[in-house]
Structure formats: C-alpha cells, structure tokens
Amino acid sequence: MLKTGNMLRSTHSLFLIKKLRLSSVLFRNSSVGVKGEPAKPNIQTSVPGPKSQQLLEELSSLQQTGSVQLFADYDKCIGNYFVDADGNTFLDAFTQISSIPIGYNHPKLMEAFKDEHYLKELVNRPALGVFPSLSWPEMLKNVLMSVAPSGLNCVATMMCGSCSNENAYKSVFMWYRNKDRGGKMDFTPEEMESCMINQPPGAPSLSILSFKGGFHGRTFGALSTTRSKAIHKLDCPAFDWPVAPFPRYKYPLDQHQRENCEEDQKCLEQVEEVIQKYHKKGIPVAGMIVEPIQAEGGDNEASPDFFKNLQKICKKNGIALIIDEVQTGCGPTGKMWCHEHFNLPSPPDIVTFSKKMLTGGFYFSEEFKPLHPYRVFNTWMGDPGKLILLKQVLTVIKNDNLICQTQETGKYLKEGLHQLENEYPNIINSVRGRGTFLAYNAPTTELRDKINNTLKKNGVLSGVCGEKTIRIRPALIFEKKHAEIYLDTLRNIFKEF
C-alpha cells in the first residue's frame, strides 16, 4: 500500500478544495449541458463485459486485436459519454484519441446530411485532384480557411495525420530543391532518370529533423520522424534522418524556472549541432517537424521561448519549420492552434492537422505550393463529406463559445489535479498542459497502468502515453461538472491505493 500523503495537506490546500467545489456548484446551476446526456457514469458489468469479450474473440480471428479495449454502441453514445456493447456508460475523457471535437452524436452533425445537396457530396466522393465539385473552392475558403493559422494562405486536404505529414515533407523537399535550382521549373534528364532508380540527383540526399519523443505517424516517411516507442518502428527500414532532444521539464514549472531554462538552451544547442552534423554528412536538413506538445510521446511541453528560438534556427539555416498540430489543433489547448500560445514573430512554414478537424491536411504559405501538377496528389485528396461535418463543428465552436469554455474547464481541471498532487504526492506528479489538453505522471509505468485501468472500471475513459503518463483528451463540450466527476473518481481511486 502506498502512503497517501494526507498529512501533507496545508491550510491552502483545504481552502482550494472548498473553492473548487463551490465553483463546481455554481457552474452546474448555470450550465445547460448536452440534452439527453447521462448525469454520471453507470457500470453494469465487468469491464470489458461479456459482449465485448465475445466480439473481441470474433475480431481476433480476422486481425490483430491487442489494442482493442471496448466495443462501442454508437447509437447510444451521446455528448461526453461513451456506451459500450454491454450497456456500460463511461465519461469519455479520451474521445477516440482526441478526435471527437463536439461530443458523440451532436444534433448539428446528425442534421448535416439532411440537405440533399450535402448528401450527394457525401455519396459521390470525388477524386478531388482531378474532378472536384463546383462548390469545392467555396468549401475550402468558408470552412478550412476560416480557421487557418495566421499568415498561411494555402491549404491541401488529406485523409489522416500520417499522410498530412508525409505530403508536408514532400512539399518541403520540393521547395528546398526548387531553391537549389534557382526557381527553374524544368528538370534535367539526369534528374528524371536517376530518380527512377532511387539515386541522386533526382532522389537527393535530404532529411527532416524530428525530436526524441515525437510522434508523426506510422507510414514510412512519417515513421522515420516518429521517435516515441520502438513498437512503431521495429522491422521497418528507415531513412537516415536526424533526431534532436526535446526539453524534459521539472515540475511545478514555477519552482524550476532556472533548470528548465537551462534545459531549453541545452536542447537548442544540440539542435544546431545536429543540423551541422547532417550537413557535413551530405544529408542536409531541409525541414524540421515538431509538436507544440508532444502527445503520444508523453505529453512533453516546451516554452514559448524554446519555439521562438527553434524558429530562429530554422530561418538561419534555410530550413522549413513544420508544426504538427494533428492532436493539438481545433481548440483543446484553449486556442484554435496550440502554436498561437507561443507568439512566434512570423508564421510557421507549414501546419499539419487532422483528428478534431475531421479531415487531414496542411496549411502552408505560397512558396510551398508545388510548381507542377501531380506532385502532391492521390486519388481522394481528402473528403468533402468531412468538410461538411467540419463546417457544422466550427459553427458550434463559435456559437457556443467552446474555446473559452475549454479554457475555463481546463483551468478548473488542472487546479483539481494540482490539488490531488498535493494530497497524494506518492501517486501523482508533474501535472501539466494547456486548456483541457492535460496530463500527469505516476511514479512507475505499473502504477500508471493500474490508475488508468481502475478509472475505466469506475466508468471513466482516459489514455496513457510515454512511460508514466496519463493524458486527458475530452471533447470541447467537456464542462466543469464533467471535470468534477473525473476528479472525484480519481480521488476515490487514490484513497484505495
């Protein structure tokens, strides 16, 4: 049995508990919430229950199912609540790996395809690079460009986060080589012949720099920049591309400012060293990709100053800066795009997105637009049906002021996690994050997994990442009353440890 550390409670801690509970009561009295949403989780069977276990056995005969946790009844899921095949109702603070923006079965999304024109856009899925709908330019302008990161006036749509990053890399390499050619559009015969046998100069020796702990996808190019877990990369050939350290901070941040500043500086120095090393190796760095908060790798965050200096390094070395907002984009950090927290002096060169944005893709500046057709191309190039849904999502975000709500809920949830950190210092530490994009650590992987599994058995879905981290990824409609359920469940679990 671990010591709970109850004797460490201070007068300030007790005051904070009362403040948090009073705030929750006031919020519940003023909140409308999601119509038809349950008041709390309801677990009726073991987790997973017999129906989920039966379905898992059936699926196992067809594919590898080691990652499957539960089977859902999506007809019954609603708002912030996930209902499994056995009728168990969970408060979902993980939301399909952070990809459900406004909750399950939101009425605005359920109505999206009642319009026959939109239904036909869904049914007649086009090869967008060849036969886009007559409404496609307007859809891009009115939907995706309405929330484009400041300074980026172009967009390419894709299917998922991995292919968004893959094609961002291609765009960077083409941009880099175009600079080498002095902007000439024509390729030499040698370039065209050599690329067909994967040799320079047509297949140049260039690289994308990524960071230790980063995750950018599981397709081959993206995989060469993914550095989070060995299981993603084992047995797959990879490019000789550089990796640099990402800051690892000490918490609480306000008590370790000097050490964390030194950590920033050390990492930035190593970034520059790696760039020079690969230049000397004859594999120059054309682009750098970084997450605003490393998600799958352990919810590792870095300071605005770190990112500002990273951008300076890129500009000094003629390197494109790609910000991977696949998981952080569309509001969960309390801003539409997490990199907005950093107040960069100029826009990133490329920003990739997916998950809560429902479609994949990347925003970019004009200079990264390919000079030739078919260079960034595939059959579907995204899906108009997803933009129809995203249009509704963005309308709900604006009308319901969900970015502001995420800030408020996130503040309440983070304060509650800090309180638990004070109460149970032997169980929880390193509370961190922005908005509701939050995380905390346990002392060991085993205890982390025990906490996460016990949350699930008590009707709360969270996720794990890194070695010791539990991550919280609710929908943007997550309110303080939901945060209170999460915190109360966690507190009751800790009391039993």
Automatic annotation (TrEMBL):
The keyword Transferase applies. Its cofactor is pyridoxal 5'-phosphate. SUPFAM superfamilies: PLP-dependent transferases. GO terms for cellular component: mitochondrion. Belongs to the class-III pyridoxal-phosphate-dependent aminotransferase family. This is (S)-3-amino-2-methylpropionate transaminase. It comes from the Eukaryota. NCBIfam families: GABAtrns_euk. InterPro entries: 4NH2But_aminotransferase_euk, Aminotrans_3, PyrdxlP-dep_Trfase, PyrdxlP-dep_Trfase_major, PyrdxlP-dep_Trfase_small. Keywords: Aminotransferase, Pyridoxal phosphate, Transferase. It comes from Parnassius mnemosyne. Its EC number is 2.6.1.19, 2.6.1.22. GO terms for molecular function: (S)-3-amino-2-methylpropionate transaminase activity; 4-aminobutyrate:2-oxoglutarate transaminase activity; pyridoxal phosphate binding. PANTHER family: 4-AMINOBUTYRATE AMINOTRANSFERASE, MITOCHONDRIAL, AMINOTRANSFERASE. GO terms for biological process: gamma-aminobutyric acid catabolic process.
